[in-house]
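Risk register update: the risk of archive-format incompatibility is retired. Evidence:
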Amino acid sequence: MTSWEDQQAAVQTAVERFGRLDASFANAGFGAARGFLEESIEHWRSMIDTNVYGCALSIRAALTQFREQNSGHMLLTGSVAGRRALPGSLYSATKWAVTAMGESLRAEVADTPLRTTLIEPGMVDTPFFDDKPKGALEPDDIARAVIYALSQPVHVDVNEILIRPSNQPI
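Archived output:
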């Protein structure tokens, strides 16, 4: 995620293999223990680089191709934590940045046929958590939300999908 050369290569590989790039999904990220005295500063830097800078690089790499072909759909993985500040959570701050990037990109391309969707999951049973949270969503729940956004007619831009387990309080 944090290598500009790798981001460009991924887009180029897709275009070479399929002739175009219909969608790009910036979906990498990781968290940290809550508390501003927790985790190492190196962990923080790596998380910020991946969650924020990596997402921005994904946008930049795909946007060049999308503009050339005058079509495309950029999806970004935000989080409920990017809508509700979590106490002592630098992770939450990185996801607020992704939320802002999604809205900023949408505004930048508003006069084009390009689309932008921010997927904002709550608790999902993934390796993000050491132990499965009670009542967590399954990865397929998020995949269906992504497919929903991608399957809309080209004149429909689903800007955000905030998806949580029904028992998640935040």
